[in-house]
Amino acid sequence: MKIFKQSVLVLFSLFLVTAYAQEKKKFKVHTIAFYNVENLFDTINDPNKFDEASPIMEMKADVGEVYKKKVHNVARVIADIGSEVTKNTPVVIGVAEVENRKVLEDLVNDPLLLGKDYGIVHFDSPDARGIDVAMLYQKSVFQVQTSSKHELKIYDDNTRKRIYTRDQLLVSGKLDGESMHFIVSHWPSRRGGEARSRAKRVAAAKLNKHIIDSLQVLDPYAKIFTMGDLNDDPTNASVKDILKAKKDKKDVGLKGIYNPMEELFKKGLGSNAYRDAWSLFDQIMFTQPFLEKDYSSYRFYKAGIYNKHYLTNKKGRYKGYPLRSFADGGFTDGFSDHFPVYTFVIKEVK
Questions:
Q1: Tens of each residue's pLDDT in the chain, 350 residues
Q2: For tag attachment on the chain, is the N or C end more exposed, with fewer CB atoms within 10 Å?
Q3: How far apart are CA 342 and CA 6, in angstroms?
Q4: Which superfamily, per CATH, for 12-349?
């Protein structure tokens, strides 16, 4: 198996030095991130959900300690993403595979994150297992104005019974006083095979596009991030044909969507691995106004996959894979079976 080594670290300090030397300009930089945190469930059985199928609920001993360690491990990763460049944690981070608001409260109150004063946007989804998406944000940087959840209604091809899955989350507000919108989603899995399950993700993409379109009807120049675990790669039909996300900036027109993750995927990089192959299911895309050259407001600078050495499996059959939290019925003291992804946005400051 060929494991691709990834190094997508942004040398933003070098950029600053060069820009300052040539044009005497300074820039403010923020990290926007997404992280599938792999089964961040509490230890309490919810009779209204099938949460007993979560790995932590299947464990027989030390459940409380495992939960605390799992929360702390996730907090460590969030605290690290982008920090070498921004000297800060992500100002906005979408998360997937969380059970409820309580686990999010425990997460943002971990000592590694407590000082950042993260706010939480979360709604319960109808997902059968009880897994949700959410958004965390630094209250000092981003102020929420509105938030809403958007149901994805899909049905089994044979029985026509509804398949209950995750809602898509929309959060609108102001980042340093600038209007922005964030969509966080976790599209249906590939259970049963990619081809057989494809229609479900196409439906998820159509819902995602509908949310984006509704924002652009009100403002064609709206700055919109859409992020999530799509269970599809940047080249799959859901992303290319439905969202019509572009790989090259020059091809992105007004109301268009740019996907910086496609270039990374074309290089063989990924955020999750399965059967000796990398996928880039975790993606962050955004609308055309982030690509403008006028840096008087926030623009896109770089995107990457946060795959530090400590997040990878060091040995054995899965060497190089993300170091997941749960395997073979036990806790590995790992982090997640997905690497986080991130983007930097920058703005000139006087």
A1: 434 333 333 334 444 444 444 567 899 999 999 999 999 999 888 877 777 678 888 887 788 999 999 999 999 999 999 999 999 999 999 999 999 999 999 999 999 999 999 999 999 999 988 899 999 999 999 999 999 999 999 998 888 899 999 999 999 999 999 999 999 999 999 988 999 999 999 999 999 999 999 999 999 999 999 999 999 999 999 999 999 999 999 999 999 999 999 999 999 999 999 988 999 999 999 999 999 999 999 999 999 999 999 999 998 889 999 999 998 888 999 999 999 999 999 999 98
A2: C
A3: 14
A4: Endonuclease/exonuclease/phosphatase (3.60.10.10)
The reported pTM is 0.92
Q: Which among 61, 59, 16, 17 has a CA at the least distance from the CA of 41? A: 59
Rounded Cα–Cα distance for residues 303 and 264 (Å): 9
Domain boundaries, the chain: 12-349
